[in-house]
Amino acid sequence: MTSSAVSLSPVTPSLAPAADVTRFGMIALATDLTSEGDLFRLLPQEGTALHVARVMNQNPTTPENLRKMGPRLTDAAALLEPVSPLAAICYSCTSASVAIGEKAVERAILAGCPTSAVITPTRAARRAFEALGAKKIAILTPYLIETSEPMAVYFLDHGLEVVKLRCFGMEDDRDMARVEIAGIVEAASEADHPDADALFLSCTALPAIGAIETIEARIGKPVVTSNQACAFAMAAEVGMVDRCAPGYGRLFEMAAS
Known about the structure:
Helices cover 40% and strands 16% of the residues. The chain is of the alpha/beta class. α7 (145-157) links the parallel β5 and β6 (161-167). It is globular, with a radius of gyration of 20 Å. The termini are far apart.
């Protein structure tokens, strides 16, 4: 059969009703190996959707390299605009939220895609500490010292007392994503302090959510991780915290009770 003999006309299919779905956005780093999967696991499984765009980043994760992401955030957010409205957009980089500045992150994302809430891991962690009634915290990061110290300053500037700070001294976020659970548990236990009300495991690359309950049982106090806090903050924006996945620490247990 020759092409001239083909008779072609469009067939119009019927469309199903638009689903009642709460949609969240996320801007992950180009090298992200952890946070995208963590948020899929943590956010409510029914009635929600997570849409992910990526932003180019460079290693090593020095403050200088982290700041280079700032001008790129608007274009990354614009990739999410076709699926808006979005209940919240999460920028999934804890250390860059400090290096760039939360207000600058928010402005850049809103310039690319409208949303009712821009979530950063640092702001989400503060929200988690407030919910837990924690005023004194210990911090464990996988970062270099020069990237870890501004994290402590950030929380001090926002009224929290940092009683201990420890870091792994790693410079590549892809390596941070390969830290074994047993190593996270041991390091977290050592990073705890008797005066701390809660322990913060910073970094969305760190595969820490699977260690939360083990660490909490060992140290006897709440553990907050970057990805856990982001899911908590995103779900809280739409009143869904009690529908988040169980088994990820006192933060969600408190909301469900």
